[in-house]
């Protein structure tokens, strides 16, 4: 135990027999300058700051990931063809009307390959979809949104789809009549 200047016994403090006085061994309140409490408090503040920083960093990472996956670009089939070189093989959504009867081949019990044409404003895009069963309303002349990417930047490269989304309600037809007129053979008339 360190002895401060006030705790030393000098010659002037010896009793009549030359013995040092008895020491008072009762616990004392620590002095603020000598206390480890301040260091403990500072350490707790640092730990709290580090934990807060880790939580904020994790939250920022999760928000970035969530927004990154939610911001797939959306193009009509003719726009996707026009921007093919800019889009490259990055993921985006393409909208159009199924222009032919899709041909399906079963790959596994839970997966299949479906090939079809997607049309919008007179432009047709070959699509190869590989994934789970498509929605029940997926058929020729149905407006769909396909999530995926170009196989390559080549002009004849197909669009590789990973998800099929059907847009089939009457309100969609009324709101997007210009998108519904892309295939005259489907005879879609906006309401």
Fold and architecture overview:
With 191 residues, the chain is of the alpha+beta class. It has two domains: 25-71; 73-186, Nucleic acid-binding proteins (OB fold (Dihydrolipoamide Acetyltransferase, E2P), Beta Barrel). It contains five helices and seven strands, in the order H-E-H-H-E-E-E-E-E-E-H-H. The protein has helices at 37-70, 77-82, 84-87, 170-175, 177-180, and strands spanning 73-76, 92-98, 103-106, 112-120, 123-131, 143-150, 159-166. It is rod-shaped and about 125 Å long. The mean pLDDT is 76.
Element-level helix/strand string: HEHHEEEEEEHH
Low-confidence stretches: none
Adjacency order of strands in the biggest sheet = 2-4-5-7-6
CATH topology of the largest domain, what is it called?
A: OB fold (Dihydrolipoamide Acetyltransferase, E2P)
Number of DSSP-assigned strands:
7
Name the shape in a single word: rod-shaped
Q: In percent, how helical is the residue content?
A: 25-40%
Quaternary class: single chain
The CATH homologous superfamily of the largest domain: Nucleic acid-binding proteins
Contiguous helical run count: 5
Strand percent estimate: 25-35%
From the helix content, strand content and strand pairing, which structural class follows?
alpha+beta
CATH architecture of the largest domain: Beta Barrel
Q: Radius of gyration over alpha carbons?
A: 38 Å
Major beta sheet summary = 5 strands, mixed, barrel
SSE topology sketch:
Blueprint: H1 37-70, E1 73-76, H2 77-82, H3 84-87, E2 92-98, E3 103-106, E4 112-120, E5 123-131, E6 143-150, E7 159-166, H4 170-175, H5 177-180
Parallel strand pairs: 1-2, 5-7
Antiparallel strand pairs: 2-4, 2-6, 3-4, 4-5, 6-7
